[in-house]
Each structure stands twice: as structure tokens, then as C-alpha cells.
Amino acid sequence: MAAEKMALAKAINESLRRALDADPKVLIMGEDVGKLGGVFRVTDGLQKDFGEDRVIDTPLAESGIVGTAIGLALRGYRPVVEIQFDGFVFPAYDQIVTQLAKMHARSLGKVKMPVVIRIPYGGGIGAVEHHSESPEALFAHVAGLKVVSPSNSADAYWMMQQATQSDDPVIYFEPKRRYWDKGEVNTEAIPGPLHTARVAREGTDLTLVAYGPMVKLCQEVADAAAEEGRSLEVVDLRSISPVDFDTIQASVEKTRRLVVVHEAPVFLGSGAEIAARITERCFYHLEAPVLRVGGYHAPYPPARLEEEYLPDLDRVLDAVDRSLAY
């Protein structure tokens, strides 16, 4: 089958459809995921085709949704849970970090927790309070959870396939501002490992590392830098926990400079761990300190101010300039 061009949201929908069709133990649960098809229509049409017993509209109770998913997993099901918006996940945080993440270790490996938690995250859509958060570092810090985020349609499709087949819990962060970006998806391709980073653009002068919504921005930064004769390499992290440090290290050993970009606040964000590890691994290769670009250490602002809060082309280019000035 030839590759088909589809929006990132459609790619997730098609991947969920394939998972439901392939395994009767796969269930989808969440607020408005059924008849409405989700607020972003990511699950559109799935309840109609697979029934209310497989695609389940739940009460507005995130702790209840995740708690029920844990119980279903204990009974052999493979639930895929939708948290409607990033900022709504916290009522379920206790269930995720003290139960879902720990059950495998607590049972000495006897109990599997094949649960996927889908979380639309990040800003850029002009939403109200609690609808534009980037809480990925909170989950990456918790042992027992896999944390991933696709940046394009092909990865959105295949990473969801791999997530639904995983016997470990996967937190699947969906970059909501990229839902409508289109890309080629080959549904018969052989995907790479779920937790391997991807070199999205080759370069020689500096490495940009990003994931999810910021990968496209970093590619635009690389385009702008190329007009000034600078060659930037862009690495799409894909997996936030575990992190593919080997791919980042190989890139930094070549370029000798690194800038990490994410929407979440810089303070104790995922970029902090990457900066520390790469400094340890590449100390004698680096010609400049690892720099980070992200949100500010402040509550996410009203929609009218979010363009000032989120990293943009100029802020990332400024970090590139500072790194190259060393």
C-alpha cells in the first residue's frame, strides 16, 4: 500500500482503529470519546464501528477513569484512556504514579499493566486555563512509566500501535497544536523501536533536540539558520522516558554544540536531564555549554499572552547565536 497523507489526529484515529480491530481486549475510555468522538475528534467514528462496549463514554472523573483502566488491565484487557486536556490529568495523578507505575514491580513482575493514557498537551491553540499545560517531566520522573510524544503523522500512527501492544503503561502525549498538520503515513511500514530518537535533519554546526510540538519549530529554525550559512542538525527525541541518549551523543560529538527546546518550563524540565547527561558524556567534545529554551517558570498565561510565553523562532535562534558565539 502506498503511503497516504493524513493529519496527525487522523493518524492516531486510524492507529486506534487498527488496534481495536486486531485485539478484542483493546478498549477506549474517556470523556466524550464515543458519540462526540472526542473534543478534537481523534476517536471519531470508533464507537459507531466497534460499539459502546469497546469505546466507552465515561463520567467526568479522571481518577475513576484511570482506576477503572487499572482494574481492567488486571483482568487482561488493554485499555486506552483519553485525558481530555493536559491540565485535567492531575485528579488521576495518584492512580498513575502510585498504582499504575508500581504494580509490575510490586508484584515482582507477575502483573502486567498494558494501559495507554493519551494526553493532548501543550499550547498554541488559544485555550483557557488548564488546557495548555506541558506536564511531561512529572511523568518522566516516575519509574515504571514509558513517556512518548510524536511530532508527525507517521510517528503518531506507529507509536500508538507500539503503545497499545506494550505490556507496560505508556503515557502518550499528543501535541494538540499539530493535530491538523499533515504528513505521509505508510501503514505497512516496519517501524523502528518506540524509544529511539530520529535525526529529522542532518547538520554540522549545532544540534537542536526537541520533541512533540517543538520539532517543527526547530526545523524552521534550521531553515532560517541555513540562510545565514549555518548548518543545524535537528533530533526528534520521540521518547521522553526512556531517552535515547546515544543518538543525541552521536550528534553532539559531530556538531559540538547542543540546544534543547521544549514548551514546558525550563526549570527542572526534560531539557535539564538531557543537558546534564550530555555534559557528562560529551564534556571533552563540547565547545559551548548546553543551552535550553522553553516556557517560563510561571503558570501558563491567558491565551492573549501565550505567544510571549512559548518558545518561538527568535528565542531559539538567539540560543543558537549564543552557543555559536563561544
Walkthrough of the structure:
With 326 residues, the protein is α/β, with parallel strands linked by helices. 35% of the residues lie in helices and 20% in strands. The protein contains 12 helices and 14 strands. The protein has a 7-stranded mixed β-sheet, sandwiched between helices. A 5-stranded mixed β-sheet has the order 9-11-10-13-14, with helices on both faces. Helix 1 packs parallel to helix 7 and helix 8 packs across helix 12. The protein starts with a strand and ends with a helix. This is Alpha-ketoacid dehydrogenase subunit beta. Its EC number is 1.2.4.-.
Q: Which residues sit in consecutive blocks of at least 5 with pLDDT less than 50?
A: none
Sum up the overall morphology in one term: globular
Largest sheet: number of strands, sense, barrel closure: 7 strands, mixed
**Average pLDDT, all residues:** 97
Biggest sheet strand line-up:
3-2-4-5-7-6-12
SSE pattern: EHEHEHEHHEHEHEEEEHEEHEHEHH
Q: State the total count of DSSP E strands.
A: 14
Q: In terms of structural class, how would the helical and strand content be classed? A: alpha/beta
Q: How large, in whole angstroms, is the Cα Rg?
A: 20 Å
**Terminal Cα span:** 49 Å
- What portion of the residues fall into strands of 2 or more residues? 15-25%
Helix content bin = 25-40%
Number of helices: 12
Protein name: Alpha-ketoacid dehydrogenase subunit beta
Keywords: Oxidoreductase, Thiamine pyrophosphate
Domain Transketolase-like pyrimidine-binding: 6-181
EC number: 1.2.4.-
